[in-house]
Specification:
heterodimer, A: alpha/beta, Rossmann fold, 2 domains, 7-stranded mixed β-sheet, 6-stranded mixed β-sheet, 15 strands, 43% helix, globular, B: mainly alpha, ABC transporter involved in vitamin B12 uptake, BtuC, two-stranded antiparallel sheet
Chain lengths: 381, 344
């Protein structure tokens, strides 16, 4: 059939042409915008529209995927991005557990992965596989150190802990155990609960019985509210500390009067109006303004973590372009090396100084001591 | 562990247990009448609570659109089904149904939601929620009412998963809690009791008594009971299985959303909290052998109490303890009761 010839020639031609059309840098973004951790994933998915659209003269194309908070779906999304889309880097996923499960696929294919997740376990201890992972959140111990310093300054001798029974809460228990020992503070109660629990009476009673000077609640999102309201209802009068997991506006709305006076350490995004001028502040303000313009509400910190991942890539891409074309293994390897040499780069969460040993790269400029005053966030003075 | 702590935990356990008891009764009711294990029951709880929260914040909960959409689909299906003999009475019912949904949409959009008295907010929530029960039965279960129990269970799970997704879409990922009915608290011996706990317990008891009276004394209640005892026999005596299904689903939607409204001031509820809550009601229903109402209620309260105390002693293993409970009861049940084959 002669009529097929022009067609096959066309297909051949388009196949030869397509590498040219694919010169764009491709970045996959995997978030959990549905399912149990949608609270984290939705601002992250929304942020994709704000990510830088070009770097080093090349256009960046983002391919967003939703994993429904399901670790299996995360693996599928990663495989699809790596095998079918041949992406140059992946931002995501949203959940700590989801991230732990895909490190090996990112490493085997040699694709840099920028994880906006809470747990430090994705980059620590550094292994051959974790070399491919970068984390755009403050490590728990950086935040914890600030809290412990504050406790010491206030003369706290004993603390009680209420955390979630998931990697977030467990890791905080671990980090605090080490830090408080050095500071001479004793953990007298360490209780756990599930995010969906309808009552935390038992745990808070146990903490009350131990009568600690202060209580630290380590829970992500709105689940950080109920332990605090329960403690207050039962008449606890000591200082209550929260982690950066509570640094969301629903915390204020749900907690009301019960969360007044809470102390936490978190990124400067919460108290932009109060912190002194800095490059990080300018970037964060710009991000928050643009986000608010599109979506009508200010972004949660989680969105900022994804935005930072975009900025890190934008910063590293020009260097990587010298070593190879986008879509090749050389380019991805060079991108990884360039990311690893990020120095003094300001972004919404603080200033990044990534080294081969530290793939999170924050210092104390990545955290502010914050308190709740008159129903709003305020810088702790 | 001293007396005061035991009292506090007991109070907590009974409050949760009362809610589990209500849910256990709805699960039992729906199961005996329709053979459906109502897994989406928990979604009625969360939808009720989150709708109430949205109304209190002065936001339209968007649930009214779901109601309107489902009503329109139902009427469309009905119109198609009865296309050959579409009597004036059927058309009248359809017009009434659509009119109700439209009125709800208008009410939600026009009323100053946040300023309404709390009782009216609760009524509005129930008015939105309860019709969803019969609608759910009509759309998803009525077409396969004669299918084996396993098929019904699978559909039930599918509806649950779909409703969790709809919940995320309608209410967002953030948790919500509502204002308590009243702020007063009073002293009972050494323990402070919040009035909301009393509300939960009182309303639960009231509801259980009302249910009991309905089933013992009224004709409709007896009809439902008859269907539960023997479906075929009830049908022969002129009790419509469609009516029985819709009525039980309506009742389940009512109990579920009322439970949601009751506990929303005590706890933070998320769009996906419902499953665990109804699962605990289910454990209670299992303790009652999916047959006995009083046993199910007692079992559900026991689940609440065990949960409260295990939360105190071994917080990390709380859920494991509660759900492991089901195993000895299943063994005991299967050893003592003789097995009755269902008519399928």
């Amino acid at each position: 059939m002669p009529s097929k010839k022009p067609l096959s020639a066309l297909i051949l031609a388009s196949a030869m042409l397509s590498p040219l059309a694919m010169a764009d840098i491709k970045v996959g973004v995997v978030t959990s915008s549905t399912g149990p951790i949608a609270l984290v994933g939705i601002p992250q998915k929304n942020t994709v529209a704000l990510l830088p659209d070009s770097a080093g003269g090349e256009r960046i194309k983002y391919i967003p995927l939703d994993d429904g908070s399901d670790p299996t779906a995360t693996v599928k999304a990663f495989k699809k991005l790596i095998d079918e889309e041949h992406v140059d880097a992946i931002i995501g996923p949203s959940g700590s557990g989801n991230a732990m499960g895909v490190i090996q696929f990112a490493a085997e294919s040699g694709t840099p992965m920028l994880a906006p997740v809470g747990t430090a376990a994705v980059v620590l201890p550094m292994t051959e596989q974790k070399k491919w992972v970068f984390k755009t959140t403050q490590n728990d111990d950086l935040i914890a150190a600030a809290l412990v310093d504050n406790m010491k300054a206030r003369g706290v001798k004993t603390i009680g802990m209420i955390g979630t029974a998931d990697p977030y809460g467990e890791n905080w228990s671990k980090v605090m155990k080490g830090l408080t020992e050095k500071a001479g503070i004793k953990i007298v109660a360490d209780e756990h609960f599930q995010r969906q629990d309808t009552s935390i009476t038992g745990q808070s009673l146990k903490v009350l019985m131990a009568n600690p000077d202060a209580v630290l609640i380590a829970a992500p999102g709105s689940s950080s509210v109920m332990p605090q309201t329960t403690l207050k209802d039962q008449g606890y009068a000591g200082q209550i500390y929260q982690t950066h997991g509570a640094a969301l506006d629903p915390f204020l709305r749900l907690g009301g009067k019960a969360v007044e006076g809470t102390i936490l350490a978190a990124s400067l995004m919460l108290v932009l109006d109060e912190v002194p001028e800095s490059p990080a502040k300018t970037i964060a303000t710009d991000y928050v303004d643009r986000y608010t313009k599109i979506y009508g509400t200010a972004p949660a910190t989680f969105g900022g973590n994804v935005y930072d991942a975009g900025l890190l890539l934008q910063n590293a891409i020009p260097t990587a372009l010298k070593s190879g074309k986008p879509g090749t293994a050389e380019f991805r390897a060079a991108l990884r090396t360039a990311l690893e040499h990020t120095t003094e780069m300001p972004a919404t969460q603080g200033v990044y100084n990534i080294t081969p040993a530290d793939h999170s790269g924050f210092d104390e400029r990545g955290r502010e001591m914050i308190t709740v005053k008159n129903g709003g966030w305020a810088l702790l003075k | 562990m001293n007396f005061q702590i035991a009292l506090l935990l007991g109070q907590d356990g009974i409050t949760n247990g009362a809610i589990y008891a209500l849910l256990a009764l709805s699960i039992l009711l729906v199961f005996t009448v329709t053979r459906i294990l109502l897994i989406p029951l928990g979604e009625f709880v969360t939808f009720g609570a989150l709708t109430m929260a949205a109304i209190q914040m002065g936001k339209a909960p968007a649930l009214e659109w779901l109601l309107l959409a489902l009503t329109l689909i139902e009427c469309g299906l009905d119109a198609y089904h009865f296309r050959s003999n579409l009597g004036s009475k059927r058309i009248q019912t359809m017009v009434l149904k659509v009119a109700y949904a439209v009125v709800m949409v208008v009410l939600i959009q026009m009323l100053p939601l946040a300023e309404l008295p709390m009782a009216f907010q609760a009524l509005l929530t129930l008015a939105l929620m309860v019709p969803l029960g019969p609608l759910m039965y009509r759309l998803f279960f009525q077409p396969l009412a004669d299918a084996p129990a396993l098929v019904l269970l699978i559909v039930s799970i599918a509806v649950h998963v779909a409703m969790v997704g709809v919940g995320l879409l309608l209410f967002g990922p953030e948790g919500a809690r509502t204002e308590p009915f009243s702020d007063t608290a009073f002293r009972l011996g050494p323990v402070m009791m919040k009035s909301q706990t009393l509300w939960v317990i009182l309303v639960s008891i009231l509801l259980i008594v009302t249910l009991f009276l309905t089933f013992e004394r009224t004709l409709y209640g007896k009809a439902l009971r008859a269907t539960a005892v023997n479906r075929t026999g009830a049908r022969l005596l002129g009790i419509s299985p469609v009516f029985a299904g819709k009525a039980t689903f309506g009742l389940a939607a009512f109990i579920g959303s009322l439970s949601g409204i009751l506990i929303a001031p005590i706890t933070t509820l998320y769009f996906d909290s419902g499953f665990i809550i109804s699962l605990k009601g289910f454990v209670g229903a299992i303790i009652g052998g999916l047959i006995s109402y009083p046993l199910a209620a007692v079992g559900a309260v026991a689940v609440g109490l065990i949960e409260a105390f295990s939360m105190f002693w071994a917080s990390t293993y709380k859920e494991i303890i509660v759900f492991t409970l089901i195993i000895p009861f299943l063994i005991w049940r299967s050893m003592t009761s003789h097995h009755v084959e269902d008519e399928e």
